[in-house]
Amino acid sequence: MLTSEDESYEAVRQLADGVAPGQALDVTDPESWIGLDFGVRQLAWQRPELIHSNASPSGRRLSWDRHASLPTVVWPRKPGDAELALALCHPEGRIREAALDHAEERPALLALVIIRCADWAEPVRERARALLAEAPPHRLAAHAALILRVARRSRGGFAQELLTGVLRAGPTAHVEALLDSGDRATARLAHRAAVERGLLPAERLARTAARHRDVVVQDLCAEAAVAALVEGAPDGFTEVVVVLLGSRHSRVRSAGVTALRRVGRHADAEPYLTDRSAVVRACARWVLRRGGTDPVPLYRALCADPGARPAAAVGLGECGTREDAGLVRALLTHPVAGVRACAVAGLRALESAHVDDVRPLLDDSSAAVVRQATVALLPCADRVPRDLLLGLLAKDRPRHQRIAAVRLLRAIGVHTEV
Predict the structure, then answer these.
(1) 236-253 b/e (C-beta count within 10 Å ≥ 16 → b)
(2) Domain spans of the chain?
(3) In this model, does residue 18 exceed pLDDT 90?
């Protein structure tokens, strides 16, 4: 299996043989260009004849005058793209600078001009920046992922400033083209620009927030979608709020729950009191309180029969009082494993997770229950009988019980393995 370094070296070798950049490397991948730049420098030391020689089987090599009083670089003719690509990555700064004079009308090599904008040599850097400043906006947008990678370097901000300016004030088509980018940084920048410019309707923002994989994009779009709702008006409930509430991402659901207050539908937050996410549950409680409803009695009623909504136990623990501990404790023996796990979490939230109540759950058949019990017992692991923990290490025990025993034993200074 070839490594990225092997691929970079192979690309350099192909360019040295005159193969066009579009065939020697994946020109759509920013890492290919960065790897090429690195590979040329490395091979200049390891295989100098590939990079420095004035002759090759194809006869395509640059030359430079080492004896001139002022260093100069001379091409006997107009260099080809492959030759110029090597020169733009050359370890000698004067060669990189001279190569930039031939790069102005070479859109296929704009990626290397972008890399040179962060060059350590000031003459190279300034020449590259002057070239890039004249590049058409659509070409900058096409190299957004590379620009944002180069921007991480100490001198890499110039190209990013150009790109950001294009997305903030240029044609909207450039922003639209980058919204679906598979590159995380590019997608974030494009969505930020789209939100700032108000290019996306609330419905599309909600759909993007609900489905996008990146958390920054989720937050940007969810917040913008909610902000677009008219305070107190029902407009946008189905197209925006319902879409946010249906997301599998908890941060997006929490935005949807919060939006219920904005559209005046406080009571619709009740089902989210038992959401699997603590953030969503907290938002639901806030919305209900703003609508004049105390969530604590609702939780108490749900705990009377929590089989369908196990998180009622942990929800009551999050907002109840110590007097509610008895109601939650009674659920430690509930037949539904999810209820037992949430009951332990609820007792922890109420600071009422007593060792004698939780300890029997280390023997539970549910991994979720045992994990919660372990977390509850860690602060007082010295009060759990060591013989009990050693017994849980038996090979015939389920793995989750053995892991719990190891964690609790290590908490009291006994190091062992699963």
Answers:
(1) bbeebbebbbebebbebb
(2) 1-135
(3) no
